[in-house]
């Protein structure tokens, strides 16, 4: 998929009229909420927001992801052509930024729990306007390091807090469906932003690249306003919990950390799709280089249309755990199909690559749906931002080790390396399912022990 961490063209099946927005919470029936009335196709019906809060969230993502697409497509060219940084300097700066974002994630989640995720996101977007504006005018390496750390930290900490915000508005499986809808829209928005960035690349002037970054900075201004409008949809927090129960800090909760890490290993699919497969196709198969664009297109379209549909298979923590296991199986199967492309001519190899990316995308989308569901169900309403930030550490770990791991296995070792990656996916899927059971067992034992201590 294009990003985790949205395009409005996908959403024009209805007119967004402020007066028609219902004041209900979640997916309860409403005038706007008659999902897909007259729309028989399940995939298309899933792409229509069914509540006022969902419309606001989707509009926010639509704006923000187009800005992010502008930045992601043109950022590296800005660093090299305008700031005149070397590849090594860019690598050092991005690595330092990734480390800073990892260290900041949990403290930022704790702060969001104190001030409220909606208020935190409004303030965060205000800082992002400033940080990206500063980035557009850096002139040397050290200014670049400061600015890229600031924008990367603000980008990474937004994901778990935004997820917690959705949890304050929707309940049960509706939370996961909303996450999936947002994820679908984000993929399209990133693609739209990347396409718009081609204007700057054709112009190839410093001011054109600066405008890309400033365009991204400006996108956060309407996002601040839209998120502030979510106040009327937020549920109040439950009353203060009584003493006892599960109160272990998520960083000291070994079962929860194990689940986060195994689920994070399944996210090696990102590195496989965007790092290893382009190299594999061009260096180790007879397929034409254009297949790199083809598999990216197939993956993006399938994710945009089908991500919400996959949440039907992960409606509770038990089915989500099974979904994580199935995700590992599907991703492992896809790696074997990709490996097989090495042994055939151009036509057969191309067909295998398309088949592989279809299976791959199914596994990727099922993992997203399952991980969202278990992360919601296994995190408390109070302290959810912090717990979700810890869960996202698994994703951060993949960002650090993923590119070097998959290139080492697949490009250096060849077809045999794909067998190793298939084994990792199978182990991660099984480990994630076992991790869910372990967390549930740990929580039950903690509750029993607490009840016994109060007698």
Automatic annotation (TrEMBL):
Q: What is its main location?
A: membrane
Q: Which Gene3D superfamilies match?
A: MFS general substrate transporter like domains
State which residue ranges cross the membrane.
53-78, 90-110, 130-159, 180-201, 207-227, 256-281, 287-309, 329-362, 416-436
Protein name as it appears in the record: MFS transporter
The organism encoding this protein is Nonomuraea salmonea
- Is Phosphoprotein found in the keyword set? no
Q: What is the lineage of its organism?
A: Bacteria, Bacillati, Actinomycetota, Actinomycetes, Streptosporangiales
Name the keywords, alphabetized.
Cell membrane, Membrane, Transmembrane, Transmembrane helix, Transport
| Membrane topology according to the record | Multi-pass membrane protein
As for subcellular location, the record says:
Cell membrane
Pfam families per the record? Answer: MFS_1
């Amino acid at each position: 998929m294009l990003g985790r961490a949205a395009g409005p063209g996908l959403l024009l099946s209805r007119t967004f009229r402020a007066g028609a927005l219902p004041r209900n919470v979640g997916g309860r029936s409403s005038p706007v909420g008659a999902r897909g009335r007259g729309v028989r196709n399940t995939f298309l019906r899933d792409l229509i927001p069914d509540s006022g809060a969902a419309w606001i969230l989707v509009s926010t993502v639509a704006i923000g992801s187009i800005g992010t697409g502008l930045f992601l497509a043109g950022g590296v060219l800005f660093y090299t052509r305008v700031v005149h940084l070397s590849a090594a300097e860019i690598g050092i700066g991005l690595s330092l930024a990734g480390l800073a974002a990892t260290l900041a994630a949990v403290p930022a989640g704790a702060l969001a729990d104190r001030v409220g995720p909606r208020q935190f996101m409004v303030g965060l977007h205000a800082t992002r306007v400033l940080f990206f504006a500063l980035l557009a005018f850096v002139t040397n390496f050290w200014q670049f390091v400061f600015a890229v750390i600031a924008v990367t930290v603000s980008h990474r900490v937004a994901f778990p807090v935004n997820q917690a915000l959705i949890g304050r508005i929707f309940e049960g499986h509706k939370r996961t469906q909303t996450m999936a809808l947002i994820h679908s829209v984000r993929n399209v928005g990133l693609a739209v932003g990347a396409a718009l960035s081609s204007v700057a690349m054709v112009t190839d002037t410093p001011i054109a690249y600066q405008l890309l970054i400033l365009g991204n900075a400006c996108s956060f201004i309407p996002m601040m306003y839209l998120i502030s409008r979510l106040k009327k949809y937020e549920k109040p927090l439950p009353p203060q919990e009584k003493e006892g129960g599960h109160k272990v800090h998520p960083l000291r909760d070994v079962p929860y950390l194990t689940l986060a890490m195994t689920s994070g290993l399944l996210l090696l699919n990102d590195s496989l799709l965007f790092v290893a497969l382009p190299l594999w196709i061009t260096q180790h198969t007879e397929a034409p280089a254009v297949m790199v664009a083809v598999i990216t297109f197939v993956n993006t379209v399938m994710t945009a249309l089908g991500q919400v549909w996959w949440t039907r298979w992960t409606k509770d923590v038990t089915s989500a755990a099974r979904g994580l296991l199935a995700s590992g199986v599907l991703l492992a199967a896809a790696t074997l199909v990709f490996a097989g492309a090495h042994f055939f001519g151009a036509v057969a190899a191309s067909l295998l690559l398309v088949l592989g990316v279809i299976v791959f995308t199914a596994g990727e989308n099922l993992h997203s749906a399952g991980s969202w569901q278990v992360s919601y169900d296994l995190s408390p309403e109070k302290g959810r931002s912090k717990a979700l930030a810890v869960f996202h550490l698994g994703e951060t770990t993949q960002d650090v080790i993923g590119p070097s791991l998959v290139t080492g296995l697949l490009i250096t070792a060849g077809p045999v390396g794909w067998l190793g990656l298939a084994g990792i996916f199978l182990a991660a899927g099984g480990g994630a399912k076992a991790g869910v059971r372990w967390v549930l067992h740990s929580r039950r034992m903690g509750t029993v022990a607490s009840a016994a201590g109060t007698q």
